[in-house]
Task: inverse folding
């Protein structure tokens, strides 16, 4: 940008600062990070209880169950993404700051992924082993979950920005985000299933990667537009 | 031409001309639907494979078609409202959502009734079109829920427009991912790809129904938008003057 003053920080400075602040906040309040993980583990515990613990049943439904549980766990952590910033007025400072709003929102989204998606990916092998998933499939699961949760964080940020400040926000957020997240779930869970059945699965991984890249390049603008609207 | 478009976007002008427009769409629309219903039920030959059960196509296909068209209208109108700040476009989007949801629901119900004799099941999870329609219905629900959750109309308009635009990209991705997914699952679909060309006796009533449904949809959309405009402009002077004037009493 040409009209900038000399001592103006670069475009990424805001993104880094916002992400760093959110990570610091998460570090000080580890419960916010850990609770969705417990939720994930518990949903994965419910399924064997409901459908039976037989080995065939678990290997067959494992990829789907883990993916659904991961999706729901990301979903419950999304509600608070912009909430505290909305309540204490930081969000309005984002809007008036000279830093580009899509990048500030992206900073928050990156921090959200680092505190929700990434821990999920790291915890998933433990749950996957209890579902009798072989090691090679676990790696595919982790890879698809990594790509998938990036997309979910980015998509979810749009929903969180649209519903921030609404009273009935939580249920509404699920209603908005779940249809949007279905492609990620379909491709993610079925890619793991294909890998478990010793079939070629690389197409699914590429599709997830493409979705993540597409979401990374488009979603921040939608999030920024939604934040502006929510703060009118 | 452009001037007329600008004039059209003005709420009082729109409110005045809609009844005539709507009637011009409604009358041929109903005539086409009446012809299509009669011809579809009595004149069209019996299908060699599906018997009389195929006749539900005359409601199913137009509904499915409108469910998607309505979403496109909703998204395009939302985009126009967001970019050029035309209030009328937002009113169109708000009116299109319940109509689209209704036609989506109708398409799902008729598809389900059709599936019972054809596939032997009310619901076939592996059919990509059914899944896409169902997810589309969820989109409509989300869209309407977001609209009703925001009290401020201007804010609800913009927020739902953003959602519709995000959704329109996603609807396409959903469609392809569901198709890919169902090809994994080997659906039991009896209907072969690129089946036999349709008999003209079957096709013409279907075309009549599709056009008729379209015209009816256009007419209903205009009427709903007109009501929506009246509601949104309820505090303005032209509404008060119109209601107080002798012609406005009707």
Result:
């Amino acid at each position: 940008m040409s009209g900038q003053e000399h001592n103006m920080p670069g475009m990424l400075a805001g993104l880094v600062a916002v992400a760093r602040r959110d990570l610091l906040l998460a570090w000080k309040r580890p419960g916010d990070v850990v609770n969705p993980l417990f939720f994930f583990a518990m949903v994965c515990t419910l399924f064997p209880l409901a459908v039976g613990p037989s080995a065939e049943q678990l290997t067959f439904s494992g990829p789907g169950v883990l993916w659904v549980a991961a999706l729901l766990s990301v979903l419950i952590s999304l509600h608070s993404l912009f909430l505290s910033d909305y309540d204490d007025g930081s969000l309005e400072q984002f809007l008036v700051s000279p830093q580009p709003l899509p990048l500030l929102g992206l900073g928050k989204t990156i921090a959200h992924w680092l505190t929700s998606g990434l821990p999920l990916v790291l915890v998933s092998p433990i749950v996957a082993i209890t579902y009798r998933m072989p090691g090679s499939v676990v790696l595919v699961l982790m890879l698809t979950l990594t790509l998938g949760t990036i997309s979910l964080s980015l998509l979810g940020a749009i929903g969180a920005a649209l519903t921030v400040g609404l009273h009935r926000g939580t249920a509404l957020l699920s209603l908005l985000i779940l249809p949007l997240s279905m492609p990620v779930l379909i491709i993610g869970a079925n890619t793991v299933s294909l890998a478990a059945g010793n079939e070629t699965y690389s197409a699914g991984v590429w599709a997830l990667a493409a979705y993540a890249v597409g979401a990374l390049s488009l979603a921040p603008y939608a999030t920024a537009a939604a934040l502006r609207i929510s703060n009118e | 031409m452009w001037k007329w478009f600008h004039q059209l976007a003005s709420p009082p002008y729109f409110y005045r001309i809609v009844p005539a427009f709507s009637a011009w769409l409604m009358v041929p629309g109903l005539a086409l639907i009446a012809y299509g219903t009669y011809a579809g039920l009595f004149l069209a030959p019996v299908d060699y494979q599906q018997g009389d059960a195929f006749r539900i196509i005359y409601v199913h296909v137009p509904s499915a078609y409108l469910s998607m068209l309505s979403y496109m209208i909703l998204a395009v109108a939302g985009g126009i409202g967001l970019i050029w700040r035309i209030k009328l476009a937002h009113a169109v989007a708000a009116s299109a959502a319940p109509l689209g949801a209704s036609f989506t629901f109708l398409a799902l119900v008729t598809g389900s009734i059709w599936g019972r004799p054809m596939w032997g099941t009310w619901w076939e999870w592996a059919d990509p079109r059914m899944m896409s329609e169902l997810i589309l219905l969820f989109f409509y629900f989300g869209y309407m829920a977001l609209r009703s959750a925001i009290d401020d109309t201007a804010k609800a308009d913009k927020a739902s427009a953003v959602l519709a635009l995000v959704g329109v990209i996603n609807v396409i991705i959903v469609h392809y991912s569901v198709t890919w997914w169902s090809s994994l699952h080997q659906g039991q679909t009896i209907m072969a790809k690129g089946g036999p060309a349709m008999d003209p006796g079957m096709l013409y009533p279907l075309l009549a129904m599709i056009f008729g449904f379209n015209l009816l949809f256009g007419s209903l959309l205009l009427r709903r938008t007109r009501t929506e405009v009246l509601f949104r402009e309820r505090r303005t002077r032209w509404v008060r003057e119109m209601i107080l004037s002798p012609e406005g009493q009707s």
